[in-house]
Amino acid sequence: MSFISLYFLLFLVVVFMAYYIVSKKYRWIVLLIASYVFYLLNDLRAVIFIILTTLTIYFSARKIKSLTEEQKRFFADKDETWLEENKKTYSKKFRRKRKALLVVTLIFNFGVLFFLKYFSYLADAFASLINVEPLGLEILLPLGISFYMFQSVGYLIDVYYNKVEPEKNVFKFALFVSFFPQVIQGPISRYKQLAPQLIDGNDFDSKSIKSGVLLMLWGYFKKLVIADRANLLYQAVMENYTNYQGAEIFVAMLCFVLKLYCDFSGGIDIASGTAKILGIDLTPNFRRPFFALSVTEYWRRWHITLGAWMKDYVLYPLTLSKGYNRFIRSCKKTLRGGVASKVIPTGLAMFFVFLLVGIWHGPNLTYLLFGVYNGIIILIETIINETRKVKKIKPKEHKKSTQRFITFLKWSLTFMLVFFGKYLSAAPSVEVAFNWFIATFQYNSFSLLFSDFLNRTNFIFTNLIILIISTAILIFVEVMQEKGIKIRDYILAKKEIVQWVVFFVAIFCVVLLTTYGGGGGFAYENF
Hints:
single chain; mainly alpha; 3 domains; 0% strand
């Protein structure tokens, strides 16, 4: 049952009615039942994996908490003399037990993720290496497994560091893991932010419901009108890219970038709008990434919750670890305490994080190189920025016209660096990505775009006009949002008749302009 199906809308109506009919105290039960029904209808065979993650994380968190309480009780019975002599030793023993439990649980869960996501690819690669017939295993990849696993693991680590209290009710924790709007492709929420909203129940709020509907409609517009339509042109060119020349391939890749952004962010908008209808606010996952003036900033605006998760649960623990601190001290000694000794360790940590992001995207070598490519750029930007901080270099003041030109140059460079990186995430292999990239700069005759390009791609002129106009609307809305204008709040502040006109026009546009057969499901739903 996809977000873009009529069945989902009917399902949402039933959940909406049930949620607000039952007592506030029991509304979380409605959400739990709805979440598991939704997951079962989407992925019947894979429900065992989400249950497995839920139970292992739940019991590990409870055990970690019980060990903490046991430690407190153990010390409470001792006098001050004993504590002065032995507290440090026994604290280490209890900490080792908690850490061992944490590590075993993480290894188990990430081991399951690794096996399901990467084993088949690695097995075939090894078979090819030793000249053996590939196994061709088809291993089930549960829907949204990366998203609900990252969310659950984040909760467990927070419990380990005493940032949150573990949930006592296993069913309430199961709701946190499986909440249906976000289980497919995120956002990756934190327990403190999401769980109270799910468990405590929410009052009926007409403004929140209207805001949610508007956000869903905007998500459907981005996915069905823009993303799926752009995908038609991209697929037509790239499936037979040898028949097309530089400018045509460049346009096709622009369509891919547009498709990927509108597909992913559109899906998140639908998820967030669905939650908003139920009075629940999900963590924002996009903040107009193509307005970024550096690749580092781009990644702070794109898939925000994954970046935050990597920062809090990978980058910080890595840079604060004993091993990494030894590496930092070694850098200072080797580089004699210069600027490089301070900026290189930070840059390398960032590079490692983006390498993991590349691996997270999938087992293909293209994704690994995608992570390396972005990691290198981030490494360079980090070194430049950290060097400026160390040397206390302040940005020069320029005239407004000069500053605008510099801003435009930064934006252009950032866009091109991001754009060329997308070749690796779009292509099925490194060789194909390289061929696409080279072909982009060969025979760059833009006149071809105005001759028989549309005929050869079977992309009708009407589709082109709709794509251009809808993309212009997207840009206009994001420019307004970048200026701090909250468009939904602006609409909902108008008279009731104006609001209903906007609703009906939006629904009419989405239904009328939907691209049937353009893109299928969401790009990130099987991650």
